[in-house]
Amino acid sequence: MLPILSALSDQTRFAAMRLLYDGDEHCVCELMRVIGATQSRMSRHMQVLKQAGLVVDRRDAQWVRYRMNPDLSPDLKALLDAVFRAETQLNRERNAA
Amino acid sequence: MLPILSALSDQTRFAAMRLLYDGDEHCVCELMRVIGATQSRMSRHMQVLKQAGLVVDRRDAQWVRYRMNPDLSPDLKALLDAVFRAETQLNRERNAA
DNA sequence: AAGGTATATGCGTTTAGGCGCATAAGGAGG
DNA sequence: CCTCCTTATGCGCCTAAACGCATATACCTT
Q1: How far apart are CA B38 and CA A41, in angstroms?
Q2: Exposure winner among A49, A52, B2, B95, fewest CB in 10 A?
Q3: Mean pLDDT computed over B69-88
Q4: How many angstroms separate the CA of residue B22 from the nearest CA in chain A?
Q5: Facing residues of A55 across strands?
Q6: B64: helix, coil or strand?
């Protein structure tokens, strides 16, 4: 459990995970553009997420496509659901204030 | 969201949170005994959990009683539920292997 | 083969975080 | 007041982790 929580407790990785949460594939170049991270930084963070088992990657020509691990256990999927739901709620409260 | 995930992504704090998850009060001395942490270490980790809003404390004579923040938003409570449920499941799988 | 795009990685630096030790602070009880 | 118990904190140390830069690797196109 700790590796997963650690993986999520970094700004860059959290942002990446939020993007991958849609279930679709995203290449590193897209992630770094959207998140605003340098290439090496983005690449390394994706390795951490992969190591934690949260994402899988696939080479496609010169790109590497990442997506949320489709074999995530229901409990872990539920954890991600709860995380992003809570985050949405916290953002709402923040904007209201 | 990140402060909460960071707070949970440490062994000692995770163990403490799991104990406080029962909703009851626990003094630092109990936590350090059960978890096996030194006093300063336990105290500091509890400050982190408190800072993250996950727990509240109360002075009671020479003790400080900690418990899960009773005003935790439903979404954050659900997050904790998901975390500990996922952890239980992971432990089960680990023991089965 | 050469050049261009995309990604990973070795390396050195910097920073954040956890730790123990010692000490302070809060409170109980003689 | 003094002592004991419990908790917090200042401080220095040490390790893990994040970063940028440069370079290697993989793949495509021409």
Answers
A1: 36
A2: B95
A3: 98
A4: 19
A5: A68
A6: strand
By C1' distance from the Cα of A11, the closest nucleotide is: D18
- CB A70: neighbour CB atoms within 10 A? 9
Nucleotide nearest to A33 (CA to C1'): C6
Residue to mutate among A4, A6, A9, with most B CBs inside 10 A, is A9
| Nearest-CB residue to B1 (from A78, A79, A87) | A87
B66 phi/psi in degrees, rounded to 5:
-105, 150
Alpha helices in chain B, H assignment, sequence order: 2-8, 11-20, 28-35, 39-51, 74-96
For A35-78, the pLDDT digits (tens) are: 999 999 999 999 999 999 999 999 999 999 999 999 999 999 99
Structure token pair of residue B66: 């900690």
Token pair of A5 as six digits: 């929580």
Tokens of B79: 């997050």
**What residues contact residue B57 under an 8 Å CB cut-off, 6+ apart?**
B46, B50, B64, B65, B66, B67
Residue B1, token pair as written in the block: 């969201």
Spatial separation of the C-alpha atoms in residues A5 and A8, rounded to whole Å: 5
Q: How many CA atoms lie within 13 A of A42 on its CB side?
A: 20
Protein chain A, residues 48-77, with a C-beta closer than 7 Å to any atom of nucleic acid strand C: 57, 62-65
Name the DSSP letter for residue B36: T
Cβ atoms of residues A86 and B75 within 8 Å: yes
